[in-house]
Amino acid sequence: MTTPTVDVHAHVLLPEVDALVAGLPGHAQAKELDARRNGPMALAVNGPMVGARIPHLTDVTARLTAMDAQGVDIQLVSPSPSHYHPWTDEETAEKISRLANEATAAHCAHAPERLYGLGLVPLQHPKLVVPALEHALEQGLLGVEISSHAPGRELSDPAYEPLWARAEKTGALLFLHPFGCTLDERLNRWYLSNTVGQPTENAVALSHLIFSGVLDRYPGLKLIAAHGGGYLPTHIGRSDHAWRVRPDARGCGREPSSYLRQLYFDSLVHDPHTLRELVRAAGPDRVLLGSDFPFDMGTEDPLGALRAAHLSDADFHAVRGGNAAALLPKE
């Protein structure tokens, strides 16, 4: 039997979450911050871009038709990161995670043989994170999507130790996908907020997990980094050098590059040479097909992008679906 083609980076838009937060105290300020970070030109493009993609983001039939056209058999569907809402209080944050978990599960239930889902956890309230993960798993989801940080907390914060412990014990998938970049207005032109901001946030978040020893303490974590892990995998040599020569960079037990082979990375790097280097650095068994469906910063032809890297036949099929299939529930 041929291994299915699996896209691990695909999103769903949840109008229920948007309706829940609309008009709440703090929502306007959060939108203002997002506007400052992106700049007026990006916002002018974002609205029509998302609007044109609403069917693919909300309608299962439209999603499946697009998947068929791409040659994708299975998607791992995660909520749009715009649903994180890290500004919300405990009560609202708990409602958001539960609603997102239930709505994502309901979306995937329309085609359970082709759609697997991930939920959300409110990183801004660490004591709610494990219950939110448990709720996601109870809905039949495979795990949760997490941001690169929460206000005032990095992923190295000890408050998240229960999350890593529970995710490791349950085998839950964690999909690391940033939303927004704390470089703020420095990136508010030319869509630098995304083109530079997203890979920067990925690199910072993964570095916190590596250097803090989280991956030493929880070697069984199944964590997938979006956008190929950002800048880190292809610039990991600088981290290794710092670990070797500076005692203050010795928070982890071994050279940082060795931890790349404990993580998973999607293939969405937009350059065949970079994809080849990602496969070399992380290993061909640690890279998974990803498209960022259906957004414009994704790829409409994920298999074409993978073919352009000219990997060996075995590595091509591992990235195409073999690696991801091993993470999915067995029939």
From TrEMBL:
One function term, GO molecular function aspect: carboxy-lyase activity
What InterPro entries is this protein classified in? ACMSD (IPR032465), Amidohydro-rel (IPR006680), Metal_Hydrolase (IPR032466)
Recorded superkingdom: Bacteria
Instruction: Give a GO biological-process term.
Output: secondary metabolic process
Among SUPFAM superfamilies, the record links this protein to:
Metallo-dependent hydrolases (SSF51556)
Among its keywords, does the record have Nucleus? no
Span of domain Amidohydrolase-related = 6-329
Recorded GO CC terms = cytoplasm
UniProtKB keywords = Lyase
In terms of PANTHER family, this protein maps to: 2-AMINO-3-CARBOXYLMUCONATE-6-SEMIALDEHYDE DECARBOXYLASE, ISO-OROTATE DECARBOXYLASE (EUROFUNG)
Q: What is this protein called?
A: Amidohydrolase-related domain-containing protein
Q: Which organism is it from?
A: Streptomyces davaonensis (strain DSM 101723 / JCM 4913 / KCC S-0913 / 768)
Q: What is the lineage of its organism?
A: Bacteria, Bacillati, Actinomycetota, Actinomycetes, Kitasatosporales
